[in-house]
Amino acid sequence: MMEDSNDVASVIASIENALSDFPELKQIVLFGSLARQQAGFDSDVDVGVEAARSLSVEQRMAMIEALALALGRPVDLVDLREAGQPILDQIVTTGVRIKGTDTDWGRLIYRNIMDNEDFVPLQKRILKARRDAWINR
After folding, report:
1. Residue 3: pLDDT above 60?
2. Could you give the number of structural domains in the chain?
3. pLDDT per residue over 66-122, tens digit each?
4. Would you give the distance in Å from CA 34 to the centre of its chain?
5. What is the enclosing helix (H) or strand (E) of 16?
6. What is the DSSP string of 36-90?
7. Fewer CB under 10 Å: which end of the chain, C or N?
8. CATH number of the domain that 113 lies in?
9. Distance (Å, rounded) from C-alpha 102 to C-alpha 126?
10. In angstroms, rounded to a whole number, what is the distance separating the alpha carbons of residues 35 and 86?
């Protein structure tokens, strides 16, 4: 377990060490309260990862176990290939890049922009219609 569980540099070093046995990972991002340095004693660790292919359940479980043992906290592991809104927006706007190329990061940002322009307005209209229907019943 880490000495200072809220120090971003310590968290990043622990994540790098814990995931060093997973060479298939081409991108790793810390996001959430630890990345924003707002974590409480009971906060989990939010980590986004990306491999060339979607991760299997077994791979995810092994990564979660390695991270939880290294960090001493519950882990929320997100496959960046499958991340949707609003998590993807949180990852690209407040995340701390740990591993990955600028090209991979740029592709993730581009996908976030496209999702926000195409999908999020539709999502908001659907939620508004549901709210209005519920309020006016």
Report:
1. no
2. 1
3. 999 999 999 999 999 999 888 999 999 999 999 999 999 999 999 999 887 877 677
4. 11
5. helix 8-18
6. TT---TT--EEEEEEESSPPPHHHHHHHHHHHHHHHSS-EEEEETTT--TTHHHH
7. C
8. 3.30.460.10
9. 35
10. 17
